[in-house]
């Protein structure tokens, strides 16, 4: 009843557990599957990890430069297996689950994206999620240069692998709709709206930088909702909403706006993995009450194309809210 199709994968539920510490060990991902998750996105592999492995490998090899060949083994005892362990972990995750396993890759350079996308595919991933988390630090780098490079990366990865490829993007593009359509044309089969950046903080009392894991809140769902509504029916790739997914009502809203699936992380941290089952059960009850037999029956029924007020997703609605705020305030 709540089956859906996302990124070329058949899911038994639209609820996907996003890449995080929640998907970094067998026990946790098996609990997610038992709770009713449609898929899991394995904790990300970062380019920094790969670079660190290469650095350690070079250091370990240099220490043998002055040794006679007979004084060492053929292969030195190298302690840099973190990245290789990640590939083994993907393989173990695939063997342990009956639901799709999506591998997340968070890189910067094309020389890393392509070979490691292939390695993750070879490890058994059912699909890939390219996580474009990269903050520009060069003021001379233009928006078009950044976007062109990302599209080239997508094209190269899609060409290199046979499994479906999705992208997880931030909302901080000049025109997110345009870059998403370009990536759709480049061959991605799924788009995750949106990536939540790490936000640094400062502790003024102790005069030091503060680093915290800030969970998303329930009111953050509206930004992906807006873009799901604008993209629905405009791209061939499936849509996954991410951010502020903490209850079944939010999942209903995202699907009505045009999402095929949702990703959840913070909600599980706050309420436990049982939240997945609660969302699935409530979604089924609501669908029966509305006479829906499948998600296809209502997905996108309130997107920008089908809404009775097509301006709801646009600037004119914003102006209306400012001019007549009392009509729209939700009171307790």
Automatic annotation (TrEMBL):
Domain Dihydroorotate dehydrogenase catalytic as annotated: residue spans:
85-287
Pathways per UniProt = Pyrimidine metabolism; UMP biosynthesis via de novo pathway
Protein name in the entry: Dihydroorotate dehydrogenase
Single biological process term from Gene Ontology: 'de novo' pyrimidine nucleobase biosynthetic process
Molecular function GO terms recorded: dihydroorotate dehydrogenase activity
Q: Which cofactor does it need?
A: FMN
Which organism is this protein's natural source? Marispirochaeta aestuarii
Q: SUPFAM superfamilies of this UniProt entry?
A: FMN-linked oxidoreductases
Keywords from the UniProt entry? Flavoprotein, FMN, Oxidoreductase, Pyrimidine biosynthesis
Q: Which Gene Ontology terms of cellular component type are present?
A: cytoplasm
For the keyword Oxidoreductase, the answer is yes
